[in-house]
Structures are given as C-alpha cells and as structure tokens.
Amino acid sequence: MTTSGRQVTVLLVDDNEDFNFIHERLLRNVLSNVGVFAEQYAEGALELLSSERGRAIDLVLLDINMPRMTGFEFVDNLSTIATRINEKLVVVMVSTTLNPDDFSRAKTSPYVVRTLEKPLTRTVLTALLTEYFPDAIRRDAKIS
Q1: Is 30 helix (H, G, I), strand (E, B) or coil?
Q2: What is the b/e burial string over 117-139, where b = at least 16 CB atoms within 10 angstroms of the residue's CB?
Q3: Considering Cα of 77, then 82, then 84, then 88, what sign does the dihedral take?
Q4: Does the global pTM surpass 0.85?
Q5: What are the C-alpha distances in Å from 124 to residues 27, 38, 58, 116, 121?
Q6: Which of 53, 65, 77, 115 has the fewest Cβ atoms surrounding its Cβ within 10 A?
Q7: Is the dihedral of CA 84, 9, 38, 69 positive or negative?
Q8: What end-to-end distance do the CA atoms of the chain give, in Å?
Q9: CB count in 10 Å sphere of residue 109
Q10: How far apart (Å, rounded) are the C-alpha atoms in residues 18 and 7?
Q11: Residues 22, 72: contact at Cβ < 8 Å?
Q12: What parts of the chain have a pLDDT lower than 50?
C-alpha cells in the first residue's frame, strides 16, 4: 500500500449513516491520502463548507433525497457561500433512485459534475477519482 500522493478531502452528505460508512471505506481503499467529513444533513454540510476547515474540501458526495434540505436545495445554496468554498470543488450527486428528472436538474447546476447511483462501487468511485484527482489514487487501485 502506498501512502504518497496529495490529500483529497471529501465531504459525505447523506442522511443514511450506512451509506456514509460504505463510501468512506471505499474512499480509504482507493485514495492514498484522504480526509473525510460526514454530515447527515445538508445544513450542516453548508455550515462546514462556510468555515475555514471547509475550504480544504475537494469533493462532495451529496445525496439527492434528504429530510429538511434536499441535495438540490444544497447546491442552490452553494452560490451564497461561493467566495468561501474551494474554487475547484467537485460535487457529485448520489441517489438510490435514478430518476431522469434528477439527471436533467443536476445538469443545470454549475457545481454538479455527475449523478451516480448509490451505493457507489469501487470501480465507479475509482473512475471518478481518477478523472478528477489522478495524482491521489493508490497505484494498486487504478482501473484499466
């Protein structure tokens, strides 16, 4: 196992703790150096992104359907804190139901780069991370 490579800091936003747990384990398997924050509610995630610690976040894995504030409401609110977030922030929406309307709506956000089905698999996550953070992937995790 290699521990070299730049650190990628990921924010998991999902009201289901099981998905946060699964996705964190996958991230630690694929990335050589990862920091993970997990929030069950979008409001807490926005608060974190607004803070000094939040400026280090590179990737957000965001559930679409959550109580109190949906993933879409979350991305709509990102513009209100745009000056305080990492300018290269990558937001990926994840959902157990891949409603075509969700895909269409996600494409309208300047922040969302992709919508994926959860739980994420190692193959899907590795491909995503290789595209956006190639210098952070563990050598033994690369896909062909």
Answers
A1: helix
A2: ebbbeeebbbebbeeebeebbbe
A3: positive
A4: yes
A5: 11, 20, 18, 9, 5
A6: 53
A7: positive
A8: 19
A9: 17
A10: 24
A11: no
A12: 1-3, 142-144
Q: What is the pLDDT at residue 4?
A: 56
CA gap 118, 77 in Å, rounded:
23
With contact defined as beta carbons under 8 Å apart, do 55 and 35 qualify?
A: no
Q: How far is CA 44 from the centre of its chain?
A: 15
- Backbone φ and ψ of 7, nearest 5°: -80, 140
13 burial (CB, 10 Å; 0-12 / 13-18 / 19+) is buried
Handedness of CA 140, 28, 13, 86 (dihedral sign): negative
CB neighbours of residue 32 within 10 Å = 20
pLDDT score, position 127: 94
Q: How far apart, in whole angstroms, are the C-alpha atoms of residue 71 and residue 75?
A: 6
Under a CB-based contact definition with an 8 Å cutoff, are residues 45 and 31 in contact? Answer: no
